[in-house]
Amino acid sequence: TLVGELSSALLALEADPRVRVVVLSATGKIFCAGNDVAWTRRSAANGTQEKQHDEDLLGHLMLTLNNLSKPTLARVQGAALGSGVGLVAACDIAVANYDCQFALTEVRFDAVPAMICPFILAAIGERHARRYLLTTERFSAAEAYRIGLVHEIVPDEEQLDEAIGEIVDKLLKNGQQALGACKSLIRRVAGRPLDESTLKEAGRHG
Asked: Given 3-state DSSP classes, what are the helix, strand and coil percentages for the chain, each rounded to the nearest 5?
């Protein structure tokens, strides 16, 4: 239910011309605890069709967040676990507080992080992804910053809000259409070789 509601909310924000920046945040002590383990196991036990349906819903959410034309920011406090790390990775910019903990926990519960894996790889690269996807160990905000999962870390939640506010202010000074085109350009040319074909592709977005 929550995954579907998040997707619907993001699509509504995308369609609203008054919305120029989207901040993904949470109330309470943590940002996101990931999938409900009992729900994941029940889905798997109920057969391939239901499991595939649930994975499709999560995949749709991740793509919707990643492909939003408007800049997206993750405001991360407390902890981001499992698919919660995927949400952070799918945002354009992420800021966390010093005490925040991260973990990619799926394989601990005999599940495969299929729908978030591409976004994790894009954010932190294959080498770091191998370690944290396979070990499921927790890592600190400082480590998340070192490997590129978050762009900035701050001491507490008050400064977290201040940091997010400063980034939002900077984004609002830029051309809305240009921001959307720039996001699209990044997606199209990321990882491609630096050759004439890539430059022609980039030029079509100039």
From this structure: 55, 10, 30
